[in-house]
Predict the 3D structure of the following.
Amino acid sequence: MAREGRPLMPCHPARARELLGRGRAVVVRQIPFTIRLRDRTRTESEIEGVQLRIDPGSKGTGMALTDEKREVERGGGTVTVRRGLLGIELRHRGDGISRCLRQRAGFRRRRRTANLRYRAPRFGNRARPEGWLPPSVRHRVDTTVSLATRICRYAPVTEIHVECAAFDTHSLSVGRRLTGPAYGRGVLAGTDVRAELRARWGDACAYCGASAVPLNIEHLHPRSRGGSDRIANLVLACVPCNRAKGTQSLRRFLAHDAVRLARVLAHVRPSLRDAAAMNSIGRPLVRALGALGKPVQSWPAALTHRNRTASGLDKTHTLDALVVGPSAGGGAPLAVRVPHQVLVVTATGRGSYARTTPDRFGFPRLRRARGKRHFGYVTGDLVRATIPRGQWAGVRTGRISVRARGQHSLATPHGRINVSYRWLRLVQHGDGYAYSRRWEAGSPLFRKTA
């Protein structure tokens, strides 16, 4: 960053160490590591600009900072090459949000129905604002935009490229590509759920094979664990098997019968939750990124696949982000530099709004402290602990979970340890994310054309 705090071009880590050693720069942020020059303004610097490329995903999103150069080939011609400056993998917590919402709904339903007066159901007639998204899907958009905003604050981003993928959920549900009139005939065309299940399972229990008995419609993946009502998640089960399975997983319930387990698993289809989430976040993400004031361009996933294949890269979110979009010359980009290490950013949240800790039935058990700051620290702060004595003596760095008594919990690569607040020094305030690093697949990969 320049002296006035405006972004400059990224530099090599060795150059950053040299500037810090000479006293020409100071550290602004530890993760991602950012320095600010003391003796140079933005007008005195040469700014070429970089591109931010995003490969959205349901579980995680890949981001890459790139620049493009014209290089001379051996034959004398010129080619546009793309260099990866920074790779970031953002890991979402959408599944955790969905799980917490299901748990809250279960607690609320139990409190309102168990040994209490009858309460009429509330119909879903409440109006939703335009552009409303479920909380787990909204989280994916918000965290991606938040991280993109932070990158634009530290790097001179001139344009943003986003991959927009659309999934055909109907074809995925049947396991083959559908065209033309086949779209009008689904699994339940001309029949209903019970008749289809009777024909599929031969009017017998899927778990024990009993026939000529009352049969219930059973969820393979329990609804309490996030299972859906798709026909691929339903089977017929006799009353004893239905009660015995309860909320167990299918593999645990049929662990004693491998043959019948394999027969039932043959009818299981992959979940469409991730595909549905990706179909929902494409346009809202592009609109939200447009509010950053940078030109935003969206590109199909097929182009990313061709570019990755032409560059000989493995399949990861960060490598997909590196090859999103064509080169400045209009052709397929040639990736000549891939970052060795990837910054892994995991969304952890900033705590809970609940003021009580419920028991397993949803009733309040403990009252939580109203304040989140204890002895100057908040859960999620990055600290450096200098422990003078004891089993864990030494210097360790990590995120902490605070406690009201001052004996905080420090996360280390070898597990959690308890550290007194007196031995801690703040390195970076918590921002709702946890940071780590991993090696990129196939690294090191350097391919020069000249």
About this structure: The first strand starts at residue 25 and ends at 29. Confidence is low (pLDDT under 50) at residues 444-450. The longest helix spans residues 94-113.
